[in-house]
Amino acid sequence: MKSLHGGSDHFVFEAVITYTRNGEKSRFDGIDLITIRDGLVVSKNSYMVKAE
């Protein structure tokens, strides 16, 4: 986990994902945006981009 930010009706989780496949290392930066209403999760959107 890189960071976690939130408010009364949402929070944002930021992460860095790294892995090795066939000897090649890769990295992705991503966020999850979670919206809350009446104490329940009403939406979760994930966004990722391959880091250079």
Task: Work out the count of structural domains.
Answer: 1
List SSEs in N-to-C order.
EEEE
Rg over CA atoms, rounded to whole Å, is 14 Å
Q: How big a fraction of the residues is strand?
A: over 45%
The helix tally amounts to 0
Order of strands across the main sheet: 1-2-3-4
CATH topology: Nuclear Transport Factor 2, Chain: A
Please bin the fraction of helical residues: under 10%
**Uncertain stretches:** none
What is the first-to-last residue Cα distance?
A: 19 Å
Mean pLDDT over all positions? 92
The biggest beta sheet is recorded as:
4 strands, antiparallel
* CATH class value: Alpha Beta
Number of beta-strand segments: 4
What is the annotated CATH architecture? Roll
Structural class: mainly beta
Write down the overall geometry: elongated
Description:
This protein has strands at 3-6, 10-21, 24-37, 40-50. The protein is mostly beta strands and 52 residues long. The protein has one domain: Nuclear Transport Factor 2, Chain: A. It has a 4-stranded antiparallel β-sheet, with no helix packed on it. A hairpin with a 2-residue loop joins strand 2 (10-21) and strand 3. 0% of the residues are buried.
Quick overview:
The chain has 52 residues and is mostly beta strands. It has strands at residues 3-6, 10-21, 24-37, 40-50. It has a single domain (3-50), classed as Nuclear Transport Factor 2, Chain: A (Roll).
